[in-house]
Structure formats: C-alpha cells, structure tokens
Design a protein that fits this description.
By secondary structure, this protein is α+β, with helices and mostly antiparallel strands. Helices cover 30% and strands 16% of the residues.
Length: 107
C-alpha cells in the first residue's frame, strides 16, 4: 500500500468519526421553582416600583437591598450577559442605556 492510500484511509476514518451518532435535542429548561411563603419574603421587587425612571447610582444598592429584603442586588445593563440561575433572595435591577432603572424583579 502506498503512502497516499494510507493517508486517504486515515483521513476517511477520522472524518467518519465526526458523522456518527445522531443529535438529540435537549429537553427544555425546567421553570423556576414555585415561590413558597419563605421565598416570597426573600425579595420584594414591588417595593421598588417607584424607582422606575430614576438614575441608578452604586449608592442605591444598599437601599435597594434594604427596601426589597434581598440578600443580593444584581444590576443588569443592556446587552450585558448574566446567569439565568433562579435565586429568590436576589434583586435584579434592570437599567436602560442611559443608566435609568426600567424595572426590578427577583431571581
């Protein structure tokens, strides 16, 4: 067997390994767990409803934590990546491109 034939067989074998198993679609992510009474007390984003349209400043974080009863505050800016893990004790402050608060939720 000449060298080119051996290389051809080797390449065909390697490429054949890429075709193999069929793809299985992954199951959709489960919905967040239902909020229990204890979770409901962990974060109250509605307490910040009057902050909509207000300019966000880092100094607001402790006040937001106190008003909402959250353990953590996460500020989410437009286009920013963030984890989708559900944490009932975390307050999410959503900002617009000008740094104004456009919404708040827990999770």
């Amino acid at each position: 067997m000449d060298r080119r034939t051996m290389i051809g067989i080797l390449v065909a074998g390697l490429l054949g390994g890429c075709v193999g198993a069929p793809r299985h679609e992954s199951a959709p992510a489960p919905p967040p767990p239902p909020m229990s009474q204890a979770d409901d007390e962990a974060c109250d984003a509605d307490a910040l409803a009057d902050w909509t349209g207000r300019d966000y400043r880092d100094a607001l974080t402790p006040r937001a934590r106190e008003r909402s009863g959250a353990e953590q505050v996460r500020v989410i800016r437009p286009g920013q990546g963030y984890t989708m893990d559900y944490r009932p004790d975390r307050l999410n402050l959503h900002l617009d491109e000008h740094g104004r608060i456009v919404g708040a939720d827990c999770g």
